[in-house]
Amino acid sequence: MLAKRIIPCLDIKDGQTVKGVNFVNIRSVGDPVELGAEYSRLGADELVFLDITASHEGRKTFKDLVRRIAENISIPFTVGGGIHEIGDVDALLCAGADKVSINSAAIKNPDLISEVAKGFGSQVCTVAIDAKLDESGEWTCYLNGGRVATDKKLFAWAKEAQERGAGEILFTSMNHDGVKQGFANDALRVLSESLSIPVIASGGAGKMEHFKDVFTEGKADAALAASIFHFHEIAIPDLKNYLKGEGIPMRIV
């Protein structure tokens, strides 16, 4: 069995790492270059950088910041936010990204997924999906950092993204984001069992047991978290040793 991945996430706004709850109440938590270097040193399996206001503000991702982070880490690096065309992908890869995460642009222009996969390989193309469970029991996908509802539904859109060439799906439950009550394991299990590409779980991590549950119950391939790492509530080495002790395959540094 492949090792499960632990992935810290740097949500970036105005050049600083920030964190909110349910995609609102955003506050600053530190310098992204320093945080990225620390997570790399502590044994994180990957690092994700999301420029959370780039699409909403209609601008490109901060390439200089991407370059500075890349120079200070030794783990795979995924960058998302403000990616609208194939040239944006090329620029971020040149700045040091290993993969790109496309979300709003993929929904608006699904052909972009195929273009990225054909141009750079599926392994470069992560399709991020922000979805909210509505009162009817359906997961609705959102644009622009959770600001705009779409007619896309989570499971159908994830399947389409895979068929178009996505190398993995990064699913964030807006209902669970920042609440620290556990991941959306039921939805994650459906995704994992219906797709043949890796699924990254995001939204809801609050304690070590939540990671065990997302790997065993949610069947996720990787788990992404932010505030619990930023605020030193859980140390990555401790988490990985705990999970290994629970029989979950981990890469231990």
Mind explaining what this structure looks like?
By secondary structure, the chain is an alpha/beta fold. The chain has a single domain (5-245), classed as Aldolase class I (TIM Barrel). Helices cover 36% and strands 27% of the residues. It is built from 11 helices and 12 strands. The protein has an 8-stranded parallel beta barrel with strand order 1-4-5-6-7-10-11-12, surrounded by 6 helices. Strand 11 (199-202), helix 9 (208-216) and strand 12 form a beta-alpha-beta unit. The longest helix is centred in the N-terminal third of the chain and has 11 residues, at 32-42. The radius of gyration is 16 Å and the shape is globular.
CATH fold assignment: TIM Barrel
Report the mean per-residue pLDDT as an integer.
92
Distance between the termini: 18 Å
Which geometry do the CA atoms define? globular
CATH superfamily: Aldolase class I
CATH class: Alpha Beta
Could you write a compact summary of the structure shown?
The chain has 11 helices and 12 strands. By secondary structure, the protein is α/β, with parallel strands linked by helices.
SSE arrangement:
Layout (H helix, E strand, L loop, with lengths): L4 E9 L2 E6 L2 E7 L1 H11 L4 E5 L2 H4 L5 H8 L6 E4 L5 H10 L3 E4 L1 H5 L2 H10 L4 E9 L5 E5 L4 E6 H11 L3 E6 L11 H10 L4 E4 L5 H9 L5 E4 L1 H4 L5 H10 L8
Parallel strand pairs: 1-4, 1-12, 4-5, 5-6, 6-7, 7-10, 10-11, 11-12
Antiparallel strand pairs: 1-2, 2-3, 7-8, 8-9
Helix pairs in contact: 1-3
